[in-house]
Write a structure and sequence with these properties.
The complex is a heterotrimer of chains A (494), B (652) and C (115). Chain B has 652 residues and is mainly alpha-helical. Chain B has 26 helices and 2 strands. The chains are: A mainly alpha (494), B mainly alpha (652), C mainly alpha (115).
Chain lengths: 494, 652, 115
């Protein structure tokens, strides 16, 4: 039995998040339910403070360790993603502030659920067995079901919730069914045991492959890989905008972190024969995501397709399967975080009066608020991968890693070629948005007032997006450390 | 302070530009105050370094014989951070303060600081007041990056940033078509130079395996041109003298673009469309001097080859003469000063070519003082009479006494009137030309620069007589400028007067020169203000100024008759040697026809065929590929399951 | 009856077939049912199919290597049951919201978000 201290050394942050969530509930109870403004503000501030505290704590006091426990590990990879998830959570809470006036109720509970989701996400970066994987993943998914349907007065929010629940539950069923077969074939549920069993086999039995494929389905659902992306456009469009932002970054990253853990450590050397599957998924995801985005007229739905396209890039990096490609994924996620959060915050501001996210809302934005227009410009160009923005560096790193891997696996050249074509396509649709921003006549000529805090968050995103394109070394180094720990920690059985 | 100082100098202006752009711009006072403040903070930090450097180098300045000083100085500050590392190559971002960059820092920050203050008065009431100061701060950041860089890549980045910020500043009055056209011209001409510069940098990098100046200097210094081959990317067959020839020539293009050397000089006169403080800052004191500074910095590249040094010297010599001849025929006050700047830059480049880097840097420093003064004076005049044409001025000394006298003193300094700063620096250059190194020893080098100096006196006094003396030809009622404008001018004037032995004693000048002379340059000979030199200088001054006096003040000689007498030569000068026309002709006839051909191809094949075709195809595909998203969750479930089935079928 | 005997009495393949049939039934239910409650029940059937597989695999593993195999597969089942309960609760909340706001439990009635 692991001691409490041992568990805390790995899951300390998760306990912190859980405790914080409990505290928020208690505070909400004490300060009096029913009133709309006071307690909710207290709760939100507490949540913000707590998450910032944990983020700072993770940077100052948490150190990666090479120790692999039966219940999980806190290697550099896990730590990198925990910080990433905390940052994502922080941004989500910050994005909620200008949005929550639209909630009809449950303003105090909203941060509680966000924190629980974050707890699941952080847990997923450390998990060492399929049981925790399943529980953590469902903690994330189920909380997100609720968050998606957080505006029961709004038909599109409910519709998104229903669709998310049904497809999500089906994906979960596939995942458990897959895990059952992996268990049956290897006799183990912990990653170390499964990995050891796989390495002892000359060829994978069909049952094991079947199981692993179904696990891939379950995780591909989170990541937004085609054809398991089907829920993404509708849910992104219908969910409250902060939740969409959370989904697009956090939930996707949860899929990424698990896929990486499985591909790099559980499959280990056997991953080479999975490059084809991952590469194929990458190709079709790139294709469908980018093509689907072209004709969109709703900003959130558009960003959903764009997110699918980005998942294609991540899958390409996974297929390349090298330390460099792992590191590039880690870097990519951070650039994606800043660009996406900025875009969603802009959407929140421009949809303030109309409460919908049709692309017409950004028409002539440059006239109404040059600052917001500039933020959207930086965000879109970074997502498109145009220098001198962080997205360019990230795409460049992935493509470089893929080209290196293509020396051993020539099929990757085709996918790299396709991805380059798709980058051009993506440039087209991102520029279409910017064309509205700069050249269309606004429907409402009024100047958009932005609060100081919103401005500060956006400015932070812009600075990070440009800064990471110039001073990317520190982040690349910590991504490299994460990738190294992921590659190095091939579990050696018990 | 040594740790943090250089970083502060470099990044405070950037911070200022960012703060103004993102919020402070609403308050004009705050924007201007911040922008001016950061420059002066930087100046005082740099002044602290200067004290350090002089006390460190002071001991070495008294060489054994008291005249020749040990080359180079041990004093320097160097901090570098790893910026980008790709494989084995690490690109550093650094601050490097040695004697050379310290002098340049003082010039850029000191003169720049005064010009910032001047701009406070000059730009008063302009709508884009804050925008202007943001641009100025951005420019300062770009420029300081060049000065503080220790490697080629960083310098190139800031080189481009300088290009961008000067584009913004020249085109500041963007609603005026000629201003934005001038901005474009400056930018494009610089692009030509920078393209060569970039190729040159890459070639030097391949040849020596490093972009760091010190390391590259060691490699080239030790190996000479013939044997530079440290880098494995190129075999022995390529890295030889020819390779270095091309690399050196291409790198020189960067210098020619920024310092407006012939034949890439065409942008500088047009750039006078910008606000006058910009002309003073960019086109007198800093940006154009960047080329000279760079040349001094990478002096070691050319040093091993006598022929290369000789080419640099002749290039400078020709530019000096060429620009001076044009200046004699112009009527736009700022353009005359612009051509004068070209001419003086030519002197500096020539001095470097004659192995006199320290002399060039000294001339750069004094020139920054008096040319900035002249530009600010011109700005003050323009401010008062609202025209640039000297034919519509005259007699202004009664209306603008302060400006006029300051301008006059600046002119005297520029003409090398004895014991003013220009006398010491220009005479240093002329001294070099009278006893040039063997590789450039010919009649032209001996006498053309001296003749150019005569021309300088002539065109400057032509300007002075037409502007400040004689009958008033201006319209309206000119007023003297406010103190925010003339006080900086007075400070610059003071510097222009005393930047000789009065400010710089023999010891200080010796130290200054030891600081600015790179390792490898020949021992330096002092200027002696003996009777010979003074008479020589007075003669040059007297002939030029006298001719102007006779023609434009007394009217004994009719300028029209000179024009007629000179005939085609005058037309040549007046039309700027037809260089601009040549470029226009090339652009109109050759480039346009080629462009038409490309355009046709572009329209027919690319646009209608590929672009529109692929855009249509893409949109159609896009419309199709989102079609399956029917909205029905049952369809989604079916598609999901179909996806799983397909995955299983294809994989198992 | 010993474990081995139980194992022998019904071969693994039969159990897996049962599980597969259950899973497919659930899947078909999800795809064909219009009533959201029934869709959710179908999902529960899929999860239970997985549970059957887990339990059977565990028993099968024990029978093959009785000395050192834990009951982890069967323990997992408790987790899936708990998680499925939570999921069902949340799903029903959303279904209720659907009924209240749009007065329907038919999933085909909510198809406004598309393309």
């Amino acid at each position: 039995m692991p001691s409490f201290a041992e568990i805390m050394s790995v899951y300390g942050l998760e306990f912190g998040l859980g405790a914080l969530a409990m505290l928020l509930i208690v505070v909400d109870l004490i300060t009096g339910r029913g009133r709309l403004t006071g307690p909710a503000d207290v709760v939100r501030l507490l949540a913000l403070g707590g998450v910032s505290g944990l983020l700072i704590y993770s940077f100052m006091f948490l150190h990666a360790s090479g120790e692999v426990h039966a219940f999980g590990q806190l290697d550099a990879f896990a730590l990198y993603f925990k910080r990433f998830f905390l940052a994502t959570t922080l941004f989500t809470l910050l994005l909620t502030a200008p949005y929550e006036a639209r909630f009809s109720g449950g303003r105090a509970e909203f941060p509680v659920l966000v924190l629980l989701t974050a707890m699941g996400m952080c847990m997923l970066s450390s998990v060492g067995d399929f049981v925790s994987l399943f529980v953590g993943l469902e903690l994330v998914t189920i909380s997100l079901f609720l968050l998606t349907a957080w505006r029961p007065g709004l038909p599109r929010s409910i519709e998104a919730g229903i669709k998310f629940v049904i497809i999500g539950a089906v994906a979960a069923a596939f995942l458990v069914y897959g895990i059952a077969f992996v268990y049956g074939a290897t006799g183990a549920l912990d990653f170390a045991g499964v990995s050891a069993a796989i390495q002892s086999m000359a060829t994978m039995p069909a049952g094991l492959k079947f199981g692993l494929l179904l696990v891939l389905v379950g995780l591909g659902f989170k990541l937004g890989a085609v054809p398991f992306h089907i829920w993404i456009p509708d849910v992104y469009q219908g969910a409250p905008t902060p939740v969409t932002a959370f989904l697009s970054v956090g939930s996707k990253a949860a899929g990424v972190v698990l896929l990486m853990r499985l591909v790099y450590t559980v499959l280990g050397p056997a991953a080479a024969e999975w490059a084809g599957v991952l590469g194929g998924l990458a190709a079709i995801t790139l294709l469908m995501g980018n093509l689907g985005a072209i004709t969109q007229t709703d900003l959130k739905r558009f960003l959903g397709y764009s997110g699918i396209a980005h998942a294609g890039f991540l899958l390409l990096a996974l297929a390349a399967h090298s330390e460099a490609s792992a590191s590039s994924i880690l870097f990519y996620m951070v650039t994606y975080l800043f660009a996406n959060m900025a875009a969603f915050l802009v959407i929140i501001v421009v949809s303030r009066t109309s409460d919908d996210s049709h692309m017409d809302r950004v028409n002539g934005l440059a006239e109404r608020s040059p600052f917001l227009a500039f933020v959207l410009l930086v965000s879109m160009l970074s997502l498109a991968g145009v220098p001198p923005f962080a997205g360019f560096v990230a795409k460049f790193m992935i493509l470089r890693a893929a080209m290196e891997a293509a020396l051993h696996n020539p099929a990757l050249y085709w996918i790299v070629g396709l991805s380059l074509v798709m980058v051009v396509v993506s440039l087209y649709y991102y520029l279409c948005v910017l064309k509205r921003v700069y050249f269309r006549e606004p429907e409402d000529k009024g100047v958009l007032e932005i609060s100081g805090s919103t401005k500060a968050i956006l400015l932070l995103c812009v600075i990070a997006t440009i800064g990471l394109a110039i001073f990317f070394n520190p982040l690349v180094e910590s991504a490299n450390a994460g990738a190294q720990s992921l590659m190095g920690a091939l579990p050696q059985g018990h | 302070m040594n740790e943090l100082g250089p970083w502060l100098i470099l990044f405070l202006p950037l911070l200022s530009a960012a703060l103004i752009a993102f919020g402070l711009h609403r308050s004009k006072a705050l924007s201007a105050g911040l922008s001016i403040g950061v420059v002066w903070v930087g100046f005082f930090i740099a002044a602290g370094f200067l004290v350090d450097a002089f006390s460190a180098a002071g001991g070495g300045a008294h060489g054994a014989d008291g005249h020749a000083v040990a080359a180079g100085s041990a004093w320097s500050i160097h901090h570098a951070i790893d910026w980008i590392s790709v494989g084995a190559h690490t690109l550093q971002y650094s601050v490097f303060v040695d004697g050379l960059s310290l002098i340049m820092l003082m010039v850029v920050l000191g003169v720049g600081g005064l010009i910032h203050i001047y701009a406070l008065g000059y730009m008063k009431g302009d709508d884009g007041f804050s925008r202007f100061f943001a641009y100025l701060s951005l420019f300062m950041f770009s420029m300081l990056g060049i000065v503080l860089s220790d490697n080629f890549f960083q310098i190139f980045i800031h080189w481009e940033l300088v290009g961008v910020s000067s584009y913004l500043l020249i085109g500041y009055y963007y609603k005026k078509p000629s201003a934005s056209a001038a901005g474009n011209k400056a930018f494009l001409t610089n692009r030509v130079g920078d393209f060569g510069f970039m190729l040159g940098i890459l070639m030097l990098y391949f040849a020596t395996g490093t972009a760091n100046f010190t390391e590259m200097g060691e490699v080239i210094g030790a190996e000479g041109w013939a044997d530079v081959q440290k880098f494995s990317m190129l075999g022995t067959a390529v890295t030889n003298e020819h390779f270095m020839w091309v690399a050196g020539a291409l790198t020189l293009m960067g210098v020619m673009g920024k310092s407006a050397q012939f034949p890439l000089h065409v942008w500088l006169p047009d750039a006078m469309e910008g606000p006058t403080p910009v002309s003073a800052l960019i086109h007198a004191a800093t940006m154009v001097a960047a080329g000279v500074f760079l040349l001094a910095r990478i002096f070691f590249v050319y040093l091993p080859s006598d022929t290369a040094m000789s080419i640099v010297a002749h290039l400078g010599m020709f530019t000096a003469f060429f620009a001076a001849t044009i200046a004699t025929t112009q009527f736009d006050i700022k353009r005359i000063l612009a051509f004068s700047t070209l001419s003086q830059l030519g002197y500096m480049v020539m001095a470097i070519g004659l192995n006199g880097t320290d002399v060039a840097m000294y001339h750069l420093t004094t020139h920054a003082f008096f040319k900035a003064l002249l530009f600010l004076g011109a700005g003050s005049v323009i401010h008062a009479v609202h025209t640039n044409d000297i034919r519509e001025m005259g007699g202004l000394i009664k209306k603008l006494p302060i400006t006029s006298w300051l301008f006059l003193i600046g002119t005297l300094a520029l003409c090398g009137f004895p014991w003013l700063s220009g006398f010491w620096s220009k005479d240093g250059v002329l001294h070099l030309t009278h006893a040039p190194p063997a590789y450039a020893d010919n009649m032209l080098i001996h006498w053309l620069p001296t003749f150019t100096a005569v021309l300088t006196s002539y065109y400057m006094f032509r300007l002075v007589f037409l502007t400040f003396f004689g009958k008033p030809r201006y319209h309206g009622e000119p007023h003297e400028s406010p103190p925010t404008m003339w006080v900086p001018m007075a400070v610059l004037c003071l510097l222009a007067v005393i930047a000789g032995p009065m400010l710089f004693t023999e010891d200080v000048i010796a130290t200054f020169r030891s600081l600015t002379r790179p390792a490898g340059s020949s021992p330096f000979h002092h200027i002696h203000a003996d009777a010979n030199t003074v008479i020589h200088a007075l003669l040059i001054f007297g002939v030029g100024a006298g001719a102007a006096w006779v023609t434009f003040s007394r009217g004994w000689v009719d300028p029209e008759r000179i024009k007629k007498a000179l005939g085609p030569i005058h037309r040549l000068f007046d039309n700027r040697w037809y260089i601009d026309d040549l470029y226009t002709w090339i652009v109109n006839n050759i480039q346009q026809n080629f462009a038409r051909l490309c355009d046709g191809f572009d329209r027919i094949v690319i646009i209608s065929g590929l672009v529109n075709g692929s855009a249509f195809t893409t949109r159609a595909l896009g419309a199709l590929s989102a079609r399956y998203q029917t909205g029905s969750v049952r369809t989604y479930a079916m598609l999901f399951v179909a996806g799983v089935a397909a995955l299983l079928a294809l994989t198992l | 009856m010993t474990l081995a005997a139980a194992q022998n009495s019904v071969p693994l393949e039969h159990w897996l077939t049962l599980s597969g049939v259950l899973f497919t039934l659930g899947l078909c239910g999800v795809m064909m049912r219009r009533n959201v409650i029934l869709v959710l029940m179908s999902v529960e059937i899929m999860l239970n199919a997985a549970n059957v597989a887990l339990v059977v695999f565990n028993k099968y593993l024990i029978a093959n290597a009785p000395e050192g195999v834990a009951l982890d597969g069967q323990v997992f089942v408790f987790f899936t049951i708990a998680v499925a309960a939570a999921e069902a609760a949340v799903a029903l909340v959303i279904a209720m919201a659907l009924f209240r706001r749009l007065d329907t439990v038919n999933v085909d009635d909510v198809a406004n978000l598309r393309w």
